[in-house]
Specification:
Length: 178
C-alpha cells in the first residue's frame, strides 16, 4: 500500500483490478459527471490501467486504486496529476455505486492530500460539473475554495454544463486538516 487509512488502502492499480474498474466506470450514474462514455469495456479498462504512471513522484497522472481494507476489494480511484514544476497538482476521484455516503471518498482524498502536501506541494486544483453537488460538497468539506465557474463550458449528454473550479493551498490545508 502506498497510503492507508483506518478503512482504506490506496495502492497502484494492477491488471486484476480491470473487471471492477470497468464495472463502476460503466455505470451511467457515475460516468454522467466524468469525461468517459459508457459502457467502459473491460478491454478499455485493461488498457487504461496499463498506461497509468508507475511513479507517483513523476509529472503526469498517477491513479490510486482505492481498496476497502476489510473486504480487499476495489471501490474507486483517486487521480492526481503532478505538474512539471513539481509544486502543484490536479485532483480527481471516482467511487463505485453502492459505496457512496460512507465517507470513503472523503477519506481517500484526505489521505492523498496529506501525502502530497507533506511532500512539499504548494497548490492542488480540482474541477467538477456544477450539477455534481456531491463532489462539490466533498471538495469544500476537505478545504477547497470555489475559485470560479465556467458557464456552459462542456457539451455532455446533450446539454451544456457549467464547470466549477476549485483550489487548495498548502497553508490552507495545514489550517483545515483534521
Amino acid at each position: 500500500m502506498l497510503l492507508h487509512t483506518d478503512r482504506l488502502g490506496l495502492r497502484r492499480f494492477t491488471a486484476a483490478d480491470a473487471p471492477a474498474f470497468s464495472a463502476y466506470r460503466s455505470d451511467p450514474g457515475i460516468a454522467r459527471y466524468q469525461s468517459w462514455d459508457t459502457p467502459f469495456p473491460l478491454e478499455a479498462a485493461t488498457e487504461r490501467i496499463r498506461t497509468y504512471n508507475d511513479d507517483q513522484q513523476q509529472p503526469g497522472w498517477f491513479q490510486y486504486a482505492v481498496e476497502l481494507a476489510a473486504e480487499g476489494c476495489l471501490i474507486g480511484d483517486v487521480g492526481f496529476r503532478l505538474h512539471e514544476n513539481l509544486m502543484q497538482g490536479d485532483l480527481g476521484f471516482t467511487l463505485a455505486p453502492g459505496r457512496h455516503g460512507h465517507g470513503y471518498a472523503t477519506e481517500a482524498v484526505r489521505a492523498v492530500l496529506d501525502s502530497r502536501f507533506a511532500g512539499g506541494l504548494h497548490r492542488v486544483s480540482a474541477e467538477c460539473y456544477a450539477p455534481n453537488t456531491r463532489s462539490r460538497r466533498l471538495l469544500e468539506r476537505v478545504g477547497f475554495q470555489l475559485e470560479g465557474q465556467r458557464p456552459a463550458y462542456t457539451w455532455t449528454d446533450g446539454e451544456w454544463r457549467d464547470l466549477c473550479l476549485y483550489g487548495l493551498l498548502a497553508d490552507q490545508w495545514t489550517q483545515s486538516a483534521p
